[in-house]
Automatic annotation (TrEMBL):
Name by which UniProt lists this protein: D-alanyl-D-alanine carboxypeptidase
Keyword Electron transport carried by entry: no
Organism: Eubacterium uniforme
UniProt superkingdom: Bacteria
Family matches, as Pfam families: Peptidase_S11
GO function term, MF aspect, one: serine-type D-Ala-D-Ala carboxypeptidase activity
Lineage: Bacteria, Bacillati, Bacillota, Clostridia, Eubacteriales
GO-annotated biological processes: cell wall organization; peptidoglycan biosynthetic process; proteolysis; regulation of cell shape
Chain segments carrying region Disordered: 35-79
């Protein structure tokens, strides 16, 4: 009985131990399941986060790619093309043909001293500088047209001074003078730069710039009653009323031998174009965007030919108004033109500094530059050779300067002797202005300014 009781206790004990072991195993298994489930949840969350992050990054990258346009590749601008955009109606082939004709007409090399056309295809630039003047204390080696703002005119108490970057003790004898580097626009010399002076025939540089905006070089025009406005004692190239001439011929007559008669005929026909543009006239059909169509009727049309002086005066005045508009757009602030030839007229004036600006623009114009660089032009219509009035280009004269290649003389009783000059060597180009001088003085003063400029820049 006792043995049976012991066995029963043993069995109960074993069962108890087994139960405890079973409970422990169950608890352990449940814990592992929870841990595994938690890890899976964490891994899932991590994976989801990574996917979202990658998606956002990809979206941002795509957005940045979409918002950043590819840089445009700009083709270089050909200087000749840029020039043709500036001189609005001058076709390159027509210009070259005219130049070639002129070379054939000019005769031997002894009769003329012309530059190669292709050497004058300089890029038209320096269009947006501001001219003005300041007191000499405000000038430095870095001063150029850009720094001469218009408001600085108010700083001047007097325009009677001389500023020079080279010889401080020297002064030209002319009433006013100016010298500027054509490329850098550095001002090297200024005497009475703001003094109002009569412009004389230096006006014709602005006339030529205006003409070339409206007229083709090979266009023929008929000389009319506009000639009645040419003063009896004015310089003339000898064109005749009722005769036809090309615009290119008249430009040579106006710029080389300073023909006031050529200036008035060019101004009349330019004024016609100005008037028609302003009034949107239906007389002429011309697409200014494509440059297609006929801009004007034949030159012998009675609607164009100046049959009386009143009609001529109307259109000449339109040209002069546009000349003043051109000068203003160039930045000139102290000029007023009343005639296309610069003959003495009340209320007509220019300053040396503003005339220098016009000279820079004229020199950067291939047509004007080429004509003014010539010493003569043979006109077959008149069977006459027009000689330049620029004594600095006269190889047989006492004032000859081999570096001088233009530009325009002027002479009236009120203006005195004037000259806008241009000169260049392999390194430098200059524009000079001399106003209110005498016959020999303008050449001496111009040579002094130009030679001093080369010496200063090449030292």
């Amino acid at each position: 009985m006792r043995v049976k009781k012991i066995i029963t206790h043993i069995v109960v004990y074993v069962l108890f131990v087994l139960a405890v072991i079973g409970v422990c195993l169950a608890v352990k298994t449940q814990g592992e399941k929870k841990k595994t489930s938690k890890n899976v949840a964490v891994d899932t969350e991590k994976t989801s986060t990574e996917k979202v992050t990658k998606t956002e990054t990809k979206t941002e990258t795509e957005t940045e790619t979409e918002t950043e346009p590819e840089p445009e590749t700009k083709e270089p601008v050909d200087p000749a093309d840029e020039y043709l955009e500036t001189v609005k109606f001058a076709n390159e082939d027509e210009y070259v043909d005219c130049i070639n004709d002129r070379y054939e007409q000019a005769g031997t090399e002894d009769d003329t001293d012309m530059t190669e056309t292709e050497n004058n295809l300089d890029e038209v630039s320096n269009q947006n500088f501001d001219l003005g003047d300041v007191d000499t204390d405000d000038l430095s080696d870095d001063d150029s047209f850009e720094s001469f703002d218009k408001h600085k005119y108010d700083m001047l108490s007097s325009v009677d001074y001389t500023y020079s970057k080279f010889d401080k003790t020297s002064e030209i004898n002319a009433e006013a003078g100016f010298l500027v580097d054509l490329d850098s626009l550095d001002i090297l010399y200024a005497k009475n730069g703001l003094e109002k002076r009569a412009p004389a025939s230096t006006t014709k540089l602005l006339t030529a710039l205006t003409v070339l905006e409206f007229l083709d070089l090979d266009e023929e025009v008929l000389v009319g009653k506009e000639q009645e406005f040419v003063a009896a004692d004015a310089s003339a190239c000898g064109i005749k009323e009722g005769e036809k001439y090309t615009v290119y011929e008249l430009l040579n007559g106006m710029l080389l031998c300073s023909g006031n008669d050529a200036a008035y005929t060019l101004a009349y026909y330019t004024g016609l174009r100005v008037y028609d543009r302003l009034e949107n006239s239906e007389i002429y059909e011309y697409n200014t965007d494509t440059r297609d169509g006929e801009y004007a009727p034949e030159c012998d049309d009675t609607n164009v030919y100046a049959a009386d002086s009143n009609e001529a005066k109307k259109y000449i005045d339109e040209c002069v108004k546009y000349m003043n508009k051109n000068a203003e757009e160039m930045g000139c602030v102290n000029v007023n033109f009343e005639t296309p030839d610069g003959y003495d007229t009340e209320g007509q004036y220019v300053t040396a500094i503003d005339l220098a600006r016009i000279g820079v623009m004229a020199k950067n114009n291939i047509v004007i530059s080429d004509i003014c660089a010539s010493t003569s032009y043979y006109d077959k219509s008149l069977d006459v050779t027009w000689q330049t009035t620029n004594e600095l280009m006269n190889k047989n004269g006492e004032f000859y300067n081999k570096k001088v290649d233009g530009l325009k003389t002027g002479s009236t009783g009120e203006a005195g002797k004037c000259f806008v000059g241009s000169a260049s060597d392999n390194n430098n180009k200059f524009i000079s202005v001399v106003l209110g001088s005498d016959q020999n003085g303008r050449w001496n003063d111009s040579n002094y300014l130009l030679n001093a400029g080369f010496k200063y820049m090449n030292k």
